[in-house]
Known about the structure:
The protein has helices at 84-94, 105-128, 134-143, 161-171, 177-186, 205-220, 229-244, 257-268, 276-290, 334-349, 355-358, 426-441, 443-448; strands at 3-6, 16-22, 29-30, 35-40, 45-49, 54-59, 66-68, 72-77, 247-255, 296-299, 302-305, 311-313, 315-316, 321-322, 325-326, 363-367, 386-401, 405-420. The chain is an alpha+beta fold. The strands form five sheets. It has a six-stranded mixed sheet with strand order 9-18-17-16-12-15. A four-stranded antiparallel sheet has the order 1-8-6-3, covered by helices on one side. It has a four-stranded antiparallel sheet with strand order 5-4-2-7, with no helix packed on it.
Amino acid sequence: MAVYVIMPKLGFNMDKGTLLKWRKKEGDFVEEQEVLFEIETDKTVMEVEAQTSGVLRKILVTEGEEVPVTLPIAIIGDGDEDISKMIKEAYQKLGKSEMTEEEPKAAKRISQGIAGKREIEPKKEKEESKKFSPRAQRKAKELGVKVQLVEGSGPGGAIIEKDVMSYYQSHKIKASPVAKKIAEKAGIKLDAIEKGTGIAGRIMKKDIEEALDKTEEMKKIEKKIPYTGMRKIIGDRISQSKFTAPHVYFTTSVDMSKVIDLLNRFNQDSEKRISINDFLVFTVAKVLSEQPNINCSLLGEEIVYHKDINIGVAVALKEGLIVPVIKNADKKSLSILSKETKKLIKLARERKLMPEDYNGGTFTISNLGMYGIDNFTAIINPPEAAILAVGTAKRIPVVIEERVEKLVVRSFMKVTLSVDHRLIDGAMAANFLNRLKYCLEFPKSLLLC
């Protein structure tokens, strides 16, 4: 019995996916749990397995198409059963007619191959039977005319010199002397201009100048790529976040000298290094457990305060940004959290994250310190209510007060908290940042907790 293959829903926020690649062709037999196709979401690229065995009877969606979740993209069934009704219903759901330009290439090749064979072979015989005089052949060579395109008027349809001249004159590109001169000087081929603005399509000076302008514009463009796939989905989501959630920003400078000294000592005696980013995730999780009013989301008409503290770590990819999530970060030791963070970042860069690896975040950290960025503001990752933007730690001279004032060099780092002002007010954000600053400037107290 034939069944539909549908675009799977791989996450709570996923409403559509892009079909990247079919692993099977129409007519191939597919085993249950065998990889059938690949899709791209706003987070990752996933291989999708067949849920049943059978023949891949019909591919309804071509590579590169974006399809809403749960809609049919193919049909698997027995090799001889009638699936015409299923195809019709599927096309209606997809908003397609039964024969569209997006029909699978395999189906096109079958129909075009049969029709093409019938049409091309007689034409080929006709071309091979054409006769032309020696003078016509010489003239055609001189003028660069293909004799196969010329209709003959001589005895028995033979092509004579007059036919070649007539064809050449009728297909000759007409251009004004000035246009010809400018085109020759600029290296523009007249046959590249479809039709001139002069009488009977004559190419004029104005047409050459317009062609020159287009050529200059094209030289300024290095390349063009379509705004689709992961980049478009990310763009749509952050645009929605920026224009829906009123963002408010709070920045402070943190003395990271003690954290850096602590990590240097720890990493000397350990094979597995702990990074500043690992320590940040660890610290933020602890502060969120103390101040749960930051760990919230607006879902519909309700403010939801999350029991779990799931920290998203923004990872830059060539195609865009992805945010793997460390679940229950506040309940993990620094070493375990560091190991898990590194593993998720590696999977993210290899595009091997599973949906559970990037769903369920309640707070995000975006760290551009490794790129030498001093300070920036980040856009909240919906449906979360806050995101922490982290800059680089820079050694700067500062005046400190102990018994007397003195000038010392310390490593300072700027952090900026972006919050959804509908859920988090200024005092709440300030309290969070002040507590985070204290924990980072006195890290031993945090480790003893």
